[in-house]
User: Which sequence fits this backbone?
């Protein structure tokens, strides 16, 4: 399935569902002018570990002095916590024995040793690294206005950023490192697919049925 243009939120090492949509779209538009919402994939990603699913969450600075909502592109990271160090350690422990972690390790480690001030800058850096590892080239731009009701040829997929009560997107299963312990864990971070499937990850994404993801918009 090929779609022309998708409107989607940037997130932290986004779920497989996001990258399946991006792999099958001609153009990707990232929403930057929405109001920041808590408890979403903007600041969290889910990985598989020996103990089960683990959620990694980025701490942000909350705007306590203003009654106005923060826009996505304004959100700042709370770097007084060693969250990058902790996240990288978690990723290494979880995936160091996966088939392709060592192959991609040098690409991802700089993301966790470089200091970023804004959430959107860190998320974009993660996205660019992931796209490079997938060898997936797409035109990606950011919104310059807020589209309340996007019109064709733009497909609104902003709902995918919600991490609570996530629908079953009917994603095909692939080999996961701890499947024998916890069963198959669906729609984890794209990193899980990449570290387990390596170069086969792009073919997987290009063959996902997007109908359930698009249907959630209606």
Assistant:
């Amino acid at each position: 399935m090929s779609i022309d243009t998708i409107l989607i939120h940037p997130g932290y090492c986004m779920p497989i569902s996001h990258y399946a949509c991006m792999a099958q779209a001609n153009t990707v538009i990232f929403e930057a002018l929405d109001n920041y919402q808590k408890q979403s994939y903007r600041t969290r990603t889910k990985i598989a570990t020996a103990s089960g699913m683990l959620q990694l969450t980025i701490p942000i600075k909350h705007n306590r002095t203003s009654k106005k909502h923060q826009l996505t592109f304004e959100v700042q990271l709370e770097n007084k916590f060693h969250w990058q160090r902790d996240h990288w350690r978690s990723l290494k422990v979880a995936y160091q024995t996966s088939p392709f972690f060592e192959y991609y390790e040098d690409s991802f480690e700089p993301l966790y040793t470089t200091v970023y001030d804004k959430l959107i800058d860190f998320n974009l850096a993660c996205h660019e690294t992931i796209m490079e590892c997938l060898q997936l080239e797409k035109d990606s731009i950011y919104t310059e206005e807020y589209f309340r009701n996007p019109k064709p040829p733009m497909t609104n997929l902003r709902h995918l950023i919600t991490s609570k009560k996530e629908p079953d997107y009917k994603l095909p299963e692939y080999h996961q490192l701890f499947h024998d312990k916890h069963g198959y864990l669906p729609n984890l971070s794209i990193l899980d697919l990449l570290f387990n499937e390596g170069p086969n990850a792009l073919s997987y994404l290009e063959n996902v049925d997007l109908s359930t993801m698009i249907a959630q918009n209606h």
User: Anything to note?
Assistant: The first helix runs from residue 16 to 23. The chain has a mean pLDDT of 93. Residues 3-215 form one domain. The chain has one domain: 3-215.
